[in-house]
């Protein structure tokens, strides 16, 4: 287990309040995936069985509209994506494509189930943190939608959504 990987997870909201030994446990069973530039982590509509933590590289979150991919967000080191499919069990709502060679930690439903069996309290904390993160993103998008409907410029000047 890499101390650097544990520290990466500790800086993320989804793993806030999670003990170091539990992060180590998750990392022991979680594979690291390499995705080459212009390849996809997953595509919109795919079944979702894992979330990812981007360890290196950049990736684009894309939504298909009228035969073209529209950029929703750029992901960088420390960003996580794919957790919505773990929570709601629906197909992927967007695609994620590597903009450069990427390395990511893959946390599957099977990995989280192992944690559930080992430490229910820490599992519940991660699930609650995922819910909070999705709610934070929803609030951000609600604000952007409201501003767009009112004709008010989007906060920060960029019209890049935070949804994944």
The assembly state of the depicted protein chains is single chain
The CA-CA distance between the termini, in Å, is 28 Å
Number of domains: 1
Strand percentage lies at 25-35%
In terms of structural class, how would the helical and strand content be classed? alpha+beta
Helix tally equals 5
**Could you give me the name of the CATH homologous superfamily?**
Jelly Rolls
So what's the overall shape? globular
Largest sheet entry: 4 strands, antiparallel
Q: What is the mean predicted local confidence, pLDDT?
A: 89
CATH architecture: Sandwich
Q: State the share of residues found in helices, binned by percent.
A: 25-40%
Major beta sheet, strand line-up: 1-8-3-6
Give the structure's gist in a few sentences.
The chain has 164 residues and is of the alpha+beta class. The chain has helices at 3-10, 20-29, 83-88, 109-118, 120-150; strands spanning 32-35, 40-42, 50-56, 59-65, 68-75, 80-81, 95-98, 102-108. It has a single domain, classed as Jelly Rolls (Sandwich), CATH 2.60.120.10.
Characterization of the model:
This protein has a single domain, classed as Jelly Rolls. The radius of gyration is 16 Å and the shape is globular. Helices cover 40% and strands 26% of the residues. The longest helix is centred in the C-terminal third of the chain and has 31 residues, at 120-150. It has helices spanning 3-10, 20-29, 83-88, 109-118, 120-150; strands at 32-35, 40-42, 50-56, 59-65, 68-75, 80-81, 95-98, 102-108. The chain contains 5 helices and 8 strands; from the N terminus they run ααββββββαββαα. The strands form 2 sheets. Strands 1-8-3-6 form a 4-stranded antiparallel β-sheet. Strands 2-7-4-5 form a 4-stranded antiparallel β-sheet, with no helix packed on it. It is of the alpha+beta class.
